[in-house]
Recover the amino acids of this structure.
């Protein structure tokens, strides 16, 4: 299994500002994922971040709003730009590992963001 | 596109009861299926991973089954405890996972 940490664990931000969330993994992984969980909802994939290439964004998410960095195989950042109250969510970093040859995903503790 | 549905959305049971949470998915060509637990405002804890070639997995009081032909998985919790109160999420797909909306479980002492 993989141990994932995220910083910050929570934050309260003002409308129009930006927040960068960090994700650190205790082992090298190829694929890292960023999810959003809006209040009372399930997880929605924002993007897939592979080291050495640009992130791949899901429908409804764009790089200008959610720029992602992946400088090495153990670290990634997600920035939530020009925030509005609708961005209030839990943001979760996830990595894919292998269990018996099959992919298994592990999740960080999440970053709870409140935008005022 | 894979869609995952969980029923019921919420469930309240007295302590000690056995219970079943249901998960259905539209695309049976899955690689594996994972069950997660999420406490309020927290991240996800992986409970069980069922590989596509398997029919069930067990961990302690938890047992998860998988029926690919019918597109269903169930999570069975035996002898429920108040500490089991959480939201349980089912997810499947070929990395990354697609999630259901979860079942919010309350176990009353």
């Amino acid at each position: 299994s993989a141990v994932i940490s995220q910083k910050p664990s929570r934050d309260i931000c003002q409308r129009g500002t930006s927040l960068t969330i960090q994700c650190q993994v205790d082992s090298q992984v190829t694929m890292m994922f960023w999810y959003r969980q809006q209040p009372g909802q399930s997880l929605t994939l924002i993007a897939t971040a592979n080291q050495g290439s640009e992130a791949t964004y899901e429908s409804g998410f764009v790089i200008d709003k959610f720029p992602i960095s992946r400088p090495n195989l153990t670290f990634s950042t997600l920035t939530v730009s020009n925030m509005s109250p609708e961005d209030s969510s839990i943001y979760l970093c996830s990595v894919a590992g292998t269990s018996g040859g099959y992919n298994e995903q592990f999740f960080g503790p999440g970053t709870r963001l409140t935008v005022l | 596109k894979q869609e995952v549905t969980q029923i019921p959305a919420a469930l309240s049971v007295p302590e000690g009861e056995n219970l079943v949470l249901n998960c259905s998915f539209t695309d049976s060509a899955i690689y594996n299926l994972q069950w997660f637990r999420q406490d309020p405002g927290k991240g996800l804890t992986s409970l069980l991973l069922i590989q596509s070639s398997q029919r069930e997995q067990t961990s302690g009081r938890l047992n998860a089954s998988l029926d690919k032909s019918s597109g269903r998985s169930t999570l069975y919790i035996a002898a429920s405890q108040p500490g089991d109160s959480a939201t349980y999420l089912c997810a499947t797909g070929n990395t990354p996972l697609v999630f259901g909306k979860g079942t919010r479980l309350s176990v009353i002492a």
Observations:
- Chain A touches chain B at residues 1, 6, 31, 33, 41-43, 45, 48, 90, 92, 94, 96, 99-100, 102-110, 112 (CB under 8 Å).
- Chain A has a mean pLDDT of 91.
- Residues 26 and 93 of chain A are 13 Å apart (CA to CA).
